[in-house]
Amino acid sequence: EAAEAPKDEL
Amino acid sequence: MNIFRLLGDVSHLLAIIILLLKIWKTRSCAGISGKSQLLFALTYTTRYLDLVTNFVSVYNTFMKVVFLAASYATIWLIYMKFRATYDQNHDTFRIEFLLLPVTILSLVANHEFTLIEILWTWSIYLEAVAILPQLFMVSKTGEAESITSHYLFALGSYRGLYILNWIYRYYMESYYDLIAIFAGILQTVLYCDFFYLYITKVLRGQRLQLPA
């Protein structure tokens, strides 16, 4: 699954 | 942040500004699909709900505010101020054929079954197909003003640059988001025939003529 990075993309 | 994503955001911002200026300056929204603009406003609204709860950076907040404001301003221009110039007869794509599959898919294929996550997923899938009414309208009218084709080129390029951003982030940060990547590839692929026509025709000063 995707890395749990915060949603930092627009 | 990387150069690909920055260029992508700038291209996206450019597209939105080009469209706003085109409608404002010519006082006309002829050839512009109001339906696509509605879908884009829905996309930004459901994606940027965390605008006030999740601060990422000044840049991030600034761009979200600009995208939201510009998309609603564009809708206001199309459906209110210059409503007389809105070409309703050619803006006939059935957006319910987009909203239903996008809604189903966002409920089935998401990272987490929470409201915020589902809405984010919904906005990602919706954005991938939001341009279809506009492309359909251009094919129906058989042509597009050159300013409209510049708008479409900038808008299509933005997500294409995001794909490069995702490749960069995969190798440099081991970060990837399959939902965003899948939808981003679909979104960019939808512009392919337009990109071909834009590069072979518009850049040579010819009008963008689509085989009707």
From TrEMBL, chain B:
It is found in: Endoplasmic reticulum membrane. Keywords: Endoplasmic reticulum, ER-Golgi transport, Membrane, Protein transport, Receptor, Transmembrane, Transmembrane helix, Transport. PROSITE patterns: ER_LUMEN_RECEPTOR_2 (PS00952). It comes from the Eukaryota. Pfam families: ER_lumen_recept. The chain crosses the membrane at residues 62-80, 92-113, 119-138, 150-168, 174-199. One of its GO terms (biological process) is protein retention in ER lumen. One of its GO terms (molecular function) is ER retention sequence binding. Its main location: endoplasmic reticulum. GO terms for cellular component: endoplasmic reticulum membrane. This is ER lumen protein-retaining receptor. It is a multi-pass membrane protein. Belongs to the ERD2 family. InterPro entries: ER_ret_rcpt (IPR000133).
